[in-house]
Specification:
By secondary structure, the chain is an alpha+beta fold. The protein has a domain of 36 residues. The chain is 53% helix and 13% strand. It is rod-shaped and about 95 Å long.
Length: 79
Amino acid sequence: MKLLIWMVIGFAVVTWIMRVKSGLSKAHRDSREKTPGKAAEAMLQCARCGMHIPASEALINADGSAFCSEEHRAQHDVR
């Protein structure tokens, strides 16, 4: 009979620990989701082909036109 009581108490303790641990990980996960991620980057349209590219990867011409590649910038300069 004592063994049965100790098993029930042990099961209750393990269940309680698992619930507390699950609640802590959920709280951590929720706080991580609320933190802002990387800010959105401006997209520019290639003056030659019309493809949209991130501003950090765009090649900007002297007149302010954006291009997706050096080839498209050279083709635009020839015109």
